[in-house]
Design goal:
InterPro entries: FDM1-5/IDN2, XS_domain, XS_domain_sf. The chain is 81% helix and 2% strand. By secondary structure, the protein is mainly alpha-helical.
């Protein structure tokens, strides 16, 4: 609201849109219904402390009173058709801007979609390559594990064969050792037997020689006795 000291005038501003215009019209209409409108103001001879009100028009805008000075300084006069034309122009501008923005966003979305499609294709290709690499890796790992298992199985088999061979050799050596012990014992028995037989033969020969010597001695003594007789 704008007022000028004791001039008795005050200006109430409404929003500069159709809602503000309708509110201003309603306000002015209420004053006219109660006979406190613009024509009532200028026709009244004794206004007293009554409150009059109206919506400013072009004659108020062009007047030299404080109201006209304020209106020319703060506002401009527009007809309804001009306001409608301006609103239409603004609406067309808004539609044009929205259309341009929509086209730009559509173009941007199409570009993003194309990039997404390209990325999806590349991703699918990479996933395929990854699956192939993973498959090859798993196959190589399985082959290495199988080769390692076969290698250890061969080592274990060779170890078992060597152990069996060594065990067989050990048994054969034990058998040979036992045979040698038995043969040595047999040889010792035979040596003792031969030694005993040799001693016996020697004793027999010695005994026979002794007997022969005794016979010779007896014969000699007998001969000597015969000679003495």
């Amino acid at each position: 609201m704008e007022s000028w000291g004791h001039s008795g005038f005050a200006i109430v501003e409404f929003k500069n849109d159709w809602a503000g215009f309708e509110n201003a019209m309603s306000c002015a209409k209420s004053f006219e219904v109660d006979h406190f409108g613009k024509r009532d103001f200028y026709a009244a001879k004794n206004r007293g402390d009554k409150l009059f009100g109206w919506m400013a028009h072009k004659d108020d805008y062009d007047s030299r009173c404080p109201i006209g000075l304020y209106l020319r300084k703060k506002t401009d006069v527009k007809t309804i058709s001009a306001i409608e034309a301006e609103d239409q122009r603004k609406a067309l501008t808004l539609v044009s801007n929205l259309t341009n923005n929509l086209e730009m966003k559509t173009s941007h979305l199409e570009e993003m979609w194309n990039k997404y499609q390209e990325a999806g294709t590349s991703l699918s290709k990479l996933m395929g390559q990854k699956e192939e690499m993973l498959k090859a890796y798993n196959e190589e790992t399985r082959k290495m594990q199988q080769d390692t298992r076969n290698h250890f199985e061969n080592i274990l088999k060779e170890h078992q064969e060597v152990s069996m061979h060594l065990e067989a050799q050990k048994k054969r050596l034990e058998q040979v050792e036992e045979q040698l012990r038995q043969r040595e014992a047999q040889n010792e028995t035979e040596r003792r037997k031969l030694h005993d037989e040799k001693n016996m033969r020697e004793k027999e020969n010695l005994h026979r020689k002794i007997i022969e010597l005794e016979k010779k001695l007896d014969a000699k003594q007998a001969l000597e006795l015969e000679v003495e007789a």
